[in-house]
Prior knowledge:
The chain is α+β, with helices and mostly antiparallel strands. The protein has a single domain, classed as Dimeric alpha+beta barrel (Alpha-Beta Plaits, 2-Layer Sandwich). 25% of the residues lie in helices and 35% in strands. It has two helices and six strands. The radius of gyration is 16 Å and the shape is flat.
Amino acid sequence: MKYALLIYSSEDVGPQTEEQMMTEMPKWFEFTEELNQAGVNLGGEALLPAATATTVQVRDGGRITTDGPFAETKEILGGFYIVEAPDLDAALAWAEKIPAAPYGSIEVRPIMEIPDA
């Protein structure tokens, strides 16, 4: 089964300075390599800050755009991994290894399998 590991944290928590980022990034590279070595990494990306987002809605046939994320929250989606795991427990085990887990939240969500049409 495929799972999305959605990484949330407050934008003012975690590495803030370039020095802190340089200390933090090897942890992310190591985690990603561990996923790769296990053959479970199906992809993932880090996202730019929420302030760079644009939200699109279509109402009455017209497009409405709003600067920023869809919802104002304390924690923002900062990135994600897509992993293949035999079950939820295995996906949770990967989620707890994500370097942001000690200061953020990791949402583990099964990915819907859509059959070919």
